């Protein structure tokens, strides 16, 4: 019997399409996941930012060319927050897949593991970018209106940032043994990354209150994802943030591929996965 | 073309200080049903994980259809169909969607996958469940759907790791009969890991694995001799002596 599979580039494209399709199916099945992904930033926008807009005015800082209201300032940070949560969600789903055995279906595919993991990452990013655009639409209705072209210009920034967080999630999933440990990810990864960044306050304001926190925020990849998205919304490129996001994405993905490699990986050491 | 669907030569594997497999060698010829017989903890699942490249073997070699798993993993895995010990279908998707996903993971075109799905579901007697959600299937039907999925890409070697675990006697017999029919009809090699003696027929080739080592490799009838398979197995593995010592 001759195997019917196709290992050529065409076969790889079919595998990529299949993996992205499965990620999308999983997402559409979980409507509550979509709602919570949308509600979380909206709570920040409608309650937190609305409360602070009266007391926190923003001085003119790039990429803004005039004073902006606080809710306009936090909007890119909330977009990045959606991507961060989505990345961690994909980490959670990888751990879940490993526990249920679905991961093995993926890993015994004849295609290289780096390709399979990158495809899974691409599927997760496609879904998370859709979530961001749903949020941006609501924010636009709320009166936060970056330049119209900015909504298109921000797409590459969202994809790059989504890839970085997704790769980080993949890496985390290789070291998280059980779903129960995911609460630790919330406490020790998501919250520190979000709060020690420029998502809620500009870096100069953070520096005024704590130089240490300012330094941490500068080294936080989340800060650079936020700034990359913020600048892209206003049709500008923050080259430093672009470099950091791309470099971190490559490093996280490389480490995740190593962690999932059967000859070197952490999965091997965990025994029966 | 190589006669063996699977060749395992001198494979050893450890988890830390625990030696899970020790110099294991076996072959599965094309068109043969080979039972890998061992109690829980014998090393069957570890061996399957090495053959499916979930772990890399660090010593010895494994080849599927002559393709070395370490140096030529793509063609080796493409020739391999697997039914894992634990369920691996997505319960929220339909049977057809699960098969389509598997076909995509092997690079199959959608049209070819659709017609192959109808073929394999007919082969396992699940044609009417094509559009049923996996969550609605019985245990036996789920197992048959898993076998159908493993057959999607026309593998030359089918691995089944305790495929009848959790099934009642009737469903177990059905799955066993189905796999034997497939061996006869499609000429693939089958490695069937089990600890249930009743699943083994006298003409089957049997590899007895115990504490990570191959204790015997012969036909079931040869291993059983005059005693029967179960007593012969206990003799080979020293389990009878252990039981007496415990008593």
From TrEMBL, chain A:
Alphabetical keyword list: Cell membrane, Membrane, Transmembrane, Transmembrane helix, Transport
Transmembrane segments: 34-61, 73-96, 117-143, 149-172, 184-204, 237-260
GO cellular component: ATP-binding cassette (ABC) transporter complex
The organism's place on the tree of life at top rank: Bacteria
Keyword Phosphoprotein: no
One Pfam family this sequence matches: ABC2_membrane
InterPro entries from the UniProt entry: ABC2_TM, ABC2_TM_bact-type, ABC_2_transport, Alc_ABC_transptr_permease, Nod_factor_ABC_transporter
A single MF term (Gene Ontology): ABC-type transporter activity
Annotated localization: Cell inner membrane; Membrane
Ranges for domain ABC transmembrane type-2: 32-263
Recorded topology in the membrane: Multi-pass membrane protein
Family: Belongs to the ABC-2 integral membrane protein family.
Name of the protein described by the UniProt record: Transport permease protein
The species this protein was found in: Amaricoccus solimangrovi
Lineage: Bacteria, Pseudomonadati, Pseudomonadota, Alphaproteobacteria, Rhodobacterales
UniProtKB/TrEMBL annotation, chain B:
PROSITE patterns (alphabetical): ABC_TRANSPORTER_2 (PS50893)
Span of domain ABC transporter: 6-236
A Pfam family the protein falls into: ABC_tran
Protein name, UniProt field: ATP-binding cassette domain-containing protein
SMART domains: AAA
Family in the record: Belongs to the ABC transporter superfamily.
Keyword set, alphabetical order: ATP-binding, Nodulation, Nucleotide-binding, Transport
Taxonomy of the source species: Bacteria, Pseudomonadati, Pseudomonadota, Alphaproteobacteria, Rhodobacterales
GO molecular-function terms, A-Z: ATP binding; ATP hydrolysis activity
Entry keyword Transport: yes
Keyword Disulfide bond assigned: no
């Amino acid at each position: 019997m001759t195997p019917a599979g196709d290992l050529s580039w065409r076969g790889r494209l079919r595998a990529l399409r299949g993996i992205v399709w499965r990620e999308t199916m999983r997402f559409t099945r979980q409507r509550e996941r979509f709602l919570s992904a949308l509600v979380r930033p909206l709570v920040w926008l409608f309650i937190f930012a609305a409360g602070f807009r009266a007391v926190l005015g923003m001085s003119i800082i790039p990429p803004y060319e005039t004073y902006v209201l606080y809710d306009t300032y936090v909007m890119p940070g909330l977009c990045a927050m959606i991507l961060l949560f989505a990345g961690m969600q994909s980490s959670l789903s990888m751990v879940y897949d490993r526990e249920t055995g679905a991961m093995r279906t993926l890993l015994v595919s004849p295609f290289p593991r780096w390709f399979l993991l990158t495809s899974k990452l691409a599927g997760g990013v496609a879904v998370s970018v859709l979530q961001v655009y749903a949020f941006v639409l609501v924010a636009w209705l709320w009166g936060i209106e970056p330049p119209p072209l900015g909504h298109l210009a921000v797409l590459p920034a969202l994809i790059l940032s989504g890839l970085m967080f997704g790769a980080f999630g993949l890496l985390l999933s290789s070291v998280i043994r059980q779903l129960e440990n995911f609460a630790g990810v919330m406490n020790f990864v998501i919250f520190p990354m979000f709060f020690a960044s420029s998502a809620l306050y500009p870096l100069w304001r953070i520096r005024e209150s704590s130089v240490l926190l300012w330094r941490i925020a500068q080294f936080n990849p989340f800060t650079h994802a936020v700034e990359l998205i913020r600048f892209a919304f206003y049709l500008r490129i923050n080259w430093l943030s672009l470099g950091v996001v791309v470099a971190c994405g490559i490093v996280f993905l490389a480490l995740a591929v190593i962690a999932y490699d059967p000859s070197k990986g952490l999965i091997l050491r965990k025994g029966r996965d | 073309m190589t006669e063996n669907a699977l060749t395992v030569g001198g494979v050893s594997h450890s988890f830390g200080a625990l030696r899970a497999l020790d110099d294991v060698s076996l072959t599965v010829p094309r068109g043969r049903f080979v039972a890998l017989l061992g109690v829980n903890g014998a090393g069957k699942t570890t061996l399957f994980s090495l053959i499916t490249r979930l772990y890399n073997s660090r010593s010895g070699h494994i080849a599927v259809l002559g393709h070395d798993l370490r140096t030529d993993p793509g063609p080796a895995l493409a020739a391999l169909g697997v039914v894992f010990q634990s369920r691996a279908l997505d319960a929220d998707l339909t049977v057809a969607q699960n098969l389509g996903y598997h076909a995509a993971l092997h690079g199959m075109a959608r049209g070819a996958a659709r017609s192959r799905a109808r073929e394999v579901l007919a082969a396992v007697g699940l044609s009417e469940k094509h559009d049923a959600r996996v969550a609605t299937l019985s245990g036996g039907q789920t197992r048959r759907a898993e076998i159908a999925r493993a057959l999607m890409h026309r593998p030359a070697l089918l691995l089944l790791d305790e495929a009848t675990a959790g099934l009642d006697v009737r469903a177990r017999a059905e799955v066993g009969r189905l796999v034997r029919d497939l061996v006869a009809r499609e000429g693939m090699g089958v490695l069937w890991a089990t600890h249930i003696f009743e699943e083994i027929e006298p003409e089957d080739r049997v590899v007895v694995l115990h504490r990570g080592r191959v204790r015997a490799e012969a036909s079931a009838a040869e291993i059983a001799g005059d005693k029967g398979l179960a007593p012969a197995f206990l003799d080979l593995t020293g389990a009878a002596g252990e039981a007496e010592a415990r008593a």
